[in-house]
Amino acid sequence: MQSMINKSSHILIAGAGGFIGGWLTKYFVDQGYQKIRAVDIKSRSDWYQVHPQAENLVYDLCGLEACDRVTQGVDYVFNLAADMGGMGFIENNKAACMLSILINTHLLMAAKKQGVKRYFYASSACVYAHDKQTDTNVTALKEEDAYPAMAEDGYGWEKLFSERMCRHFSEDFGLDVRVARFHNVYGPKGTYDGGREKAPAAMCRKIIQAMLSGKHEIDIWGDGEQTRSFMYIDDCVEGIIKIFNSNFDQPINLGSSELVSINQLASIVEDIANVKLKRSYDLTAPQGVRGRNSNNDLILSVLNWEPSISLRKGLEKTYAWISQELETKV
Questions:
Q1: pLDDT averaged over the chain?
Q2: What is the percent of the chain where pLDDT is above 90?
Q3: What are the boundaries of each domain within the chain?
Q4: 155-173 and 101-114 helices, crossing angle to 10°
């Protein structure tokens, strides 16, 4: 599929200091794009990746004035900015997650004002109705399963509301928008400790630390039978670009359909590490929905594509990177 973005076009990546935003910025840098404006609220020293070829700016995009400034002269906007993390974070920081509504609302207003040609919004599988995710043997979620609305409290409602805001800016003002619902993205150069990490990175870290400490025991949140699918970052970036360049303007799943339990996830990482550890289960820890998986019928139909990197292959790369990070800290 040919890119609609000319190499001389001006691109804004909001949330560029984050995990996915950092990799998306790298994609455009590697492809030779000349005008990349990378923006994040964090100090640049805290960005996961900083690319000198981009214009790297620090702004709090919750404010309309900041959004007006960073969208000046911009042709295309990729909004990946949000206050979020893994289940441990979003279950205990619902108000903070909801405040990300301000980012998308003000970026949309600024994009309309500046005449942005196309706007991408990073949504989440957390928009899906809770009553469709109560079984570990979950039926893979189709895009229409977001309604009747019963989203994940806090973070999921923020994402669903922001999807609607994108839709209405398109309907009322003609802003060209694309919305992708991410399903559990993981990979190197992201969060692996501190409370915001997601399950694949957390599992790699726990197993590496268990080996380094000689304890040979890990804790697992819940009974370990809850199920998820996990998408490697390379697939995520490729999917973003394909969705952005397509003519499809409705929310669409972007996730792997390879369903595994958390216990199975632990076993895969143990196999990569060539170790078998004792497991203790914390039934009081945040667990989220019982099962969640991505139905990829629509993205296959629209783009003739879906994520293809196996969980095992992606975890090998993620494990190697986290292992190197932790060993340098010993």
A1: 95
A2: 91
A3: 10-185+231-254, 187-228+259-329
A4: 20
CATH number listed for the domain at residues 187-228+259-329: 3.90.25.10
Q: Which one is catalytic: 33, 155, 192, 232?
A: 155
Q: Which two tokens stand for residue 37?
A: 């404006």
Please state the rounded mean pLDDT for residues 312-323. 98
Q: What is the mean pLDDT of residues 3-15?
A: 92
Could you tell me which residues come within 8 angstroms of residue 256 by beta carbon, excluding any fewer than 6 positions away? Answer: 183, 229, 230, 231, 232, 235, 294, 306, 307, 309, 311
Residue 1 has pLDDT above 80, yes or no: no
| Dihedral of the alpha carbons of 162, 77, 200, 85, in degrees to the nearest 10 | -50
* Per-residue model confidence as pLDDT tens digits over 43-68: 999 999 999 999 999 999 999 999 99
Task: Give pLDDT, residue 204.
Answer: 97
For 224, the token pair is 């370990």
Whole-angstrom Cα distance, residue 161 to residue 251? 12
Q: d(Cα 288, Cα 213) in Å, to the nearest integer?
A: 29
Rg of the chain on CA atoms, in Å? 19
> What CA–CA distance (Å, rounded) separates 54 from 221?
39
Q: Active-site residue 48, yes or no?
A: no
The pTM of the whole model exceeds 0.70? yes
- CATH code of 10-185+231-254, in short, is 3.40.50.720
First to last CA, the chain: 46
